[in-house]
Amino acid sequence: MSRIGRPIFDRVDLVRRLLARSSSLSEIPVHVTPSRIALKELHDPETGRLDAARFAEHLKIPLRKLAEAMRKNYSTVHKTPASPTLQPFLRSLKRSLEILAELYPERAAALAWLNAPLPDLGGRAPLDVILEGYPDAVEDMLEGALIGIPA
Q: Is residue 4 situated within a structural domain?
């Protein structure tokens, strides 16, 4: 169970279900060619790592709130926004933003979705859940929706 009262979709289980549905591995799309980096503007140009300050700007939220969600000291995040210790949280958040960018090409529409209360999140907005420290709950909900699994 996630801390928001809903089971977090297990990725290993997802892969097993997808493989079980497929009669052969050749039916599973495999992308081995290099592709463009989605939301490249969220990466630090020097290190290539995800940058918390760029996320805060993208989401129109104070960096302090994002630091609190990551359970990190604000001044540390402010000084080193692309720190390796921030990457797991930011990767999960980025995946949600990638999915939203596919669904809503206009950033304003994606931000509106993030700020809209959803029944699947107990009436809370996805951004609120993220800022409570659970970006994986929103990511899992969006990943499930992409493959047709209801929340």
A: no
Q: What is the pLDDT of residues 44-74, one digit of tens each?
A: 999 999 999 999 999 999 999 999 999 999 9
Count structural domains, the chain: 1
Contacts 24+ apart (CB under 8 A), 77-84: 77/52, 77/53, 78/53, 81/44, 81/51, 81/52, 81/53, 81/54, 82/44, 82/47, 82/49, 82/50, 82/51, 82/52, 83/49, 83/52, 84/49
Q: For residue 110, what are the domain limits?
A: 11-146
Q: Is 124 helix (H, G, I), strand (E, B) or coil?
A: strand
Phi and psi dihedrals of 143, rounded to 5?
-60, -45
Phi then psi for 114, rounded to 5 degrees? -60, -25
Is residue 104 situated within a structural domain? yes
Do the domain assignments include residue 38? yes
What global pTM score does this model have? 0.74
